[in-house]
Amino acid sequence: MPHAMHATLHELDRLPVDRPMPKIDRQRIFGERMMISRVILHPGFQVPTHQHENEQFVVLLSGRCVFTIGTPGTADSQEIEMSGGQVLHLPSHIPHACRALERCEILDLFSPISAATGVDRS
After folding, report:
1. Domains and CATH numbers, the chain
2. 3-class DSSP state for residue 13?
3. Residues with Cβ < 8 Å from 48, sequence gap 6 or more?
């Protein structure tokens, strides 16, 4: 039997904000198979190289940042400078890091969703 489907409307300005590390504000909406995060990176924000199962699209709405793709210091490493209006696709398990050159507003789309505790998915 198919599961019940319903649409939900969200207002970005009313979503709770969390700050998982310094210089970042994040709001998230979780679906069954994907999630979207509205992220504000403040100047000087840096996240070290990491990787995850999730496929990720980084939609940079405004600002400038630099992504390091691959393992830093190796031949496969590259830097990509992004500015507002650009989209970066990060396949699953690709090592990447990010630093904000100025204030950035980003929409991150992840599939599958990231593990989260205490999240209301209704």
Report:
1. 19-82+91-111 (2.60.120.10)
2. helix
3. 97
Q: What pLDDT is stored for residue 2 in this prediction?
A: 54
Rounded to whole angstroms, the Cα distance separating 79 from 6 reads 41
Buried b (16+ CB within 10 A) or exposed e, 46-60: ebeeeeeebbbebbb
- Indicate the pairing of strand 46-50 with strand 55-62: unpaired
Nearest CA to 12 out of 2, 25, 21 is that of 25
pLDDT tens-digit series, residues 7-63: 999 999 999 999 999 999 999 999 999 999 999 999 999 999 999 999 999 999 999
Strands 35-41 and 46-50: unpaired
- Which tokens belong to 14? 């009313």
* Nearest Cα residue to 113 out of 54, 26, 27, 25: 54
Residue 37: count of CB within 10 angstroms of its CB: 19
